Amino acid sequence: MRLPIPFPIPWPEAWRPLPCAVATSTAYAALYTASNHMTSLRTDVGAGVFAWERGIPFVDWTVVPYLSICVFFALSFFIDADAGRLRRHVLRLLLVLIVSVLCYAAFPLRFTFERPPTDGVIGLMFDLLGHCDMPYNRAPSLHIGVLVLMWARFSPVARGGWALALHAWFALIGVSVLTTYQHHVLDVPAGAALGIAAILLTMPSRRAMHAGHAPRGSVTASRTEGRIGGRTEGRTEGRPGSHTRGETARA
C-alpha cells in the first residue's frame, strides 16, 4: 500500500544529497551557535524595536510552525533530484547564513521582550528552543531568510491542494517569528530581502539555460528532421516514378 506523498521524492536516489544535507546543517549549527555566543559576550548590543510592537500578542502554539522549518530544511535536499538545482539551493543557504552572521557581528541586537511562561508539550518545545537559541542573532532574521528559500524550493513541486496548504503553512511560519517572541519587526523584512537577494544572485542566466537545453533540442530536432526528410523523400521519389511509368506506357 503506497502512502500519498505531496512531493515527488526520488527514493532510489535519495541518498545522493545526504552529504550536502549533513555538511550544510553542520555549517548552520556551528556558525549560528558561535555567533550567538560571541554576541552574548559583547557590551555594545542594541535593541532595534518599535514601541508599538508591545501590542503584538504572544501566541504559544505558533512555536509548532516555527520549529517545523527544521523539517522543511531537512527535506529540501531530497525533493528534487536535479544536481544543478541542488547546488544552487545549497549555495543560497550558505549565502544567507554567511551574510546573516556577518550582519550579527556588525550590528549586534537583542530581543527585549519577556516571554510569558508556558507548560505542557508547548512548554517543552519552548524549552528545547531555549537550549538551542539565545535572544541574539536578530537582523536579518535567519529564520525568514531560510523560509524564503524553502518557499522557492518547495513551490515548484507542490500541486493542487497541497500547494495551497504549503503556502498557508509557510505564511504561518513567517508570522510565528513574531508571535513566539523570537524576533522584532525590523528583523522580518531584512531576512526576506536577504533570501530574495540570494535567489536573484544565484539564478542561472538565460544563456546558461539555453545551453543546458540545446543538446536535447538538437537531438529532437535531428530526429524530427530525419522523419520529415524521410517522408518527403519517399513521396518525392514516388511521384517521379509514377510519371515515368505513365510516360513509358504512353510511349
Characterization of the model:
It is built from eight helices and no strands. The protein has helices at residues 18-40, 63-75, 83-106, 120-132, 142-154, 160-179, 187-201, 206-250. Helix 5 crosses helix 7. Residues 214-251 have low confidence and may be disordered.
Task: Tell me the major beta sheet.
Answer: none
Q: Could you state the oligomeric state of the chains shown?
A: single chain
The low-pLDDT segments are 214-251
**Measured distance between first and last alpha carbons:** 76 Å
Count of separate DSSP helical elements: 8
Cα-atom Rg, whole angstroms?
A: 28 Å
Average of pLDDT: 82
Instruction: Bin the strand percentage.
Output: under 5%
Note the overall shape: globular
- Helix-strand pattern: HHHHHHHH
Roughly how much helix do the residues carry, as a percent range?
A: 55-70%
Total strands:
0
What structural class is derived from the secondary structure elements?
Answer: mainly alpha
Strand and helix layout:
Elements: H1 18-40, H2 63-75, H3 83-106, H4 120-132, H5 142-154, H6 160-179, H7 187-201, H8 206-250
Helix pairs in contact: 1-3, 2-6, 3-5, 3-7, 5-6, 5-7
Short description:
The chain is built from eight helices and no strands. It is globular, with a radius of gyration of 28 Å.
